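STRUCTURE REQUEST FORM
Protein name: fructose-bisphosphatase
Source organism: Candidatus Xenohaliotis californiensis
Requested output: structure tokens
Priority: standard
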Amino acid sequence: MLAAAAIKCLGGTIQGRLIFNNDTEWLRAKNMGIDNKDKIYTAEEMIKGDTVFIATAITNAMGMNGINIYGEWLNIESIIMCTEDQSITNINNTYKVNKHAETYYTNNS
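Status: completed
Returned output:
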């Protein structure tokens, strides 16, 4: 669903199908209203209405820098995409961290 939301925000298309590993999973899906094991779903069927996709980089990926610590400062990059106004917003936040936070994050670069 995350990939479908991101692709829909970018104006792309995606198709997907549910895969059931056993009869218990199929029965559970039937109880939730799924009636066709082999149905191929479109992005519009998977993600209905206006969609917002938000991602924060933990490691360097998709042209975004992962979480970095510079002394007492923590730098975080995120992206927000929205279907309503077809916007893509990049956010770069810097926070001052306390000494306790530094024990949980390490900058190994």
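Reviewer notes: The radius of gyration is 20 Å. Strands lie at 15-16, 41-42, 52-56, 68-70, 73-82, 87-96.
Form closed.
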